[in-house]
Amino acid sequence: MRGDTSSCAIRRFLVAVLLCFGVVGGATAGAKLDDPTVSLAFVGDIMLDGIPGDTVKGERDPFAHFARILDAADIRIGNLECVIASEGRAERKPFTFRADPRTVNVLKGHFTALSLANNHTGDFGRAAFSEMLNLLEVQKLSYFGGGRNLAEAHAPLLIERNGLKIAILGYNEIFPRSFEANHDTPGLAWSEDEQVITDIQNARKVHHADLVIPFMHWGLEHEPHASARQRRLARTMIDAGANAVIGGHPHVTQDIEQYKGSPIFYSLGNFVFDGFKDEDNITGWLIRLEMDRKGVHRWQLYVAHIDHQGIPHPASPKARSCWQRGQRVGAICG
Ligand SMILES: [Zn+2]
């Protein structure tokens, strides 16, 4: 029931915006843009095993319906909720996802970088994780939140566009913790508050980033509201210097908050994922941030409906809603 899904998503979004913006408030009214500017698109979980994997094997593109919206952003980022490898053996856990190496080429066609910090990139062991790093590097598709050792996993991905240097960090706090990188073993970046704060501060001090965005894998599955833990850490990250916080993992979208002028999108929900039927699970968000040197000056949201093959379709070619600097309450635009 596509119509029901859409109205449900819009209703939830409006409630989230009214609740959060109404209480916390926005930035300075009438503020001017601080040139230059850069646009970034973020999507949630991309799982390329199962039917979406078969789609790629059939030489069809799971991202085709969102190509125009993705391509319109200077920087395009998603969470890779699987390992990409031909080797490895499934870990003992309820769900394990492994995508065919040919998916890298399809991802490269749409994304600037992928987060590896989640509870599935380690599903087929460290050798498969390393194979994925090699495959991504060969195709020159950037990644963050994971690496060949602990230092690499915690290093920011630095992207320069339009004269701005953007640091992207990725962290996972969903078990198993055994997927974490070690001093000399590959894996992902685990979300430890103290380390996250240090990494954000270093992105500015050591790497001279103008803008810093952490992409989190956190929260309770199928829970539409962020937990106290998520809220506390998100605010701590902004206090440490993050300009926006993006999250995922719950398989549903969660509420949006504004803190000290910076937006927090607690969960973008699924993006490419099969096997879900409930409306909440087959509705995801693409968030488009427009940023200047001071941070986010405007954001827009596109609703994705995920079909029974796990493929996302835009609810509308236009953004459903937006916020811009100076507004206290979110407004519908488009
Ligand atoms: Zn997850």
UniProtKB/TrEMBL annotation:
Belongs to the CapA family. InterPro entries: Capsule_synth_CapA, CW_Biosynth-Accessory, Metallo-depent_PP-like. This is CapA family protein. Residues 39-275 form the Capsule synthesis protein CapA domain. CDD domains: MPP_CapA (cd07381).
